Known about the structure:
Layout: H1 2-7, E1 13-15, H2 29-51, H3 58-70, E2 78-80, H4 82-93, E3 95-98, E4 101-106, E5 109-115, H5 120-124, E6 131-135, E7 138-139, H6 145-152, E8 159-165, E9 173-178, E10 180-183, E11 187-192, E12 197-202, H7 209-222, E13 227-231, H8 240-250, E14 256-261, E15 269-272, E16 284-288, H9 295-305, E17 310-313, E18 321-328, E19 332-342, H10 357-361, E20 375-377, E21 383-385, E22 394-395, H11 403-411, H12 414-425, H13 436-448, H14 455-478, H15 480-488, H16 492-499, H17 501-515
Parallel strand pairs: 1-18, 12-13, 13-16, 16-17, 17-22
Antiparallel strand pairs: 2-19, 3-10, 4-5, 5-6, 6-7, 6-8, 8-9, 11-12, 14-15, 14-19, 18-19, 20-21
Helix pairs in contact: 7-8, 8-9, 12-14, 14-15
Amino acid sequence: MARFFKRNWMWMIMTATVVVAGPLLARSSGEVARQRTLDTLTEIMELVQKQTPEPPAPRQLTHATIQGMLHTLDPHSNYMDESEFRLLREEQKGSFFGIGAIIQQHDQGIAIISPMKGGPAERMGIRSGDIIKEIDGASTEGMTSNAALQKLRGEKGTLVEVAVQRAGIADLLRFSIPRAEVPTNSVYYSFMLNPTTGFILIKDFGETTSEEFERAVASLKKQGMKQLILDLRNNGGGVLDAAIGICRQLLGPDQLIVSQKGRDGREENQTRTSKGAQLDPFPLTILINRGSASASEIVTGAVQDHDRGLVVGQTSWGKGLVQSLLTINRSRGLALTTARYYTPSGRSIQRDYSHGLDDYYNPEDEKDAKPQGPAFKTDLNRTVYGGGGINPDYPVTVPKLNEFMISLRFQHSAFFRFAVHEKEHFGIKPGQHADDVVMARFRAWALDQKLTISDKDWEANHDIMQEQISIEMQNVAYGIEAGFKIQCEKDPVILRALELMPEAETLLHKKQLLSRGAPATVGTTL
Length: 526
């Protein structure tokens, strides 16, 4: 989790302009103290350069010094070098130039999980299951997914040379792939779970998220949607305006979305919905977990405080700090915390970070997560709590993989590799699940790969292995949305949200009565 939040730059971002004033004739005592501090820092950096056996590069030293300073402020202020800043801007804008493929670091190397339909990689013949062994002549051995991503992206129209290893072929296959624009849609999945229930998963919040969401809702309504599950699990946040845009579609007219307060609670800024018409209301449930942060919590907090829908899952991350994105020399960035945000009921959901970053980046297990802050009231007089993230209306415990499954899935990539083998030798039908015949082939394949599966492990984990194989079979044959639909069939959080739809409909009805002036008090403690 720590690495995810340090490397995932999807903070809640505001734009800001930095103006540098001219020199003053007289220097205050504070300015003198700051100059002494700068002199000390300069002297130490010079000593490090002169005295250490292996002097660090000046750029490396500067980067580490800035990050160390920022991390004394809060966990989210962050300095980005050229490559990091470029990736952030690409994510926010919703597109980049690359080969159009989803990659993942596996034990065998950088694996192609799925080429994007119609993208450069697919057009050139790249397949799911290919292992990238070289990028522009450089070996990918030991390379992380992030490092490979930076090498695969580049200027539009430029070529990237990729060598892949494909199952059943001894020699490496070499491709010259022209980089092209690849959309990074925030609305990752949008489909009907059943004849009346739509499902939308938003993976982050970028400049196009609000428009993508509006189009997705319109499309689902044409397919018969009467109620919606909005999945914000593992959505680390993003652009503040995108979260506001979603809220303006979901909430009623002239409702408070979020307020921001600067240093010492001064300069409060409130953002509200318009006084005009919103989307036609429909029963709504929102799914969250510990990976839901920042802009995700803005949307969830506003929906919960205004009783617009039910929240299901696990307690969210708890990030109530706002970063302004400051551009440094046009190519680097500084995400500096400049304010706190508050949900419509007035609660701050920022989790405590005074005990150090280790505790902050590795929060307690979900079963121990309890409301930590003061109580507040929703529009229908339900009790909610500030501090420590947003607590779901209905908590759902998600089973964790045991060590045996972790080893097969992550250390050996067994299910993914077997799915590639299954596709090459037997073919895979749309929506196909792994039956007893496929499971028998998997056990024989695992034995051939020298993967030890005892009779006890086989019996204890048979069902979850069968599910994982079914998901990976659809992933490699028809793309990751096909695999995700298989996953949804047994997802305990989604199943619970479906069960709660009648209650979400009742909540919506009571809220509509309240907006018309009728009494509709609920008074539930969350």
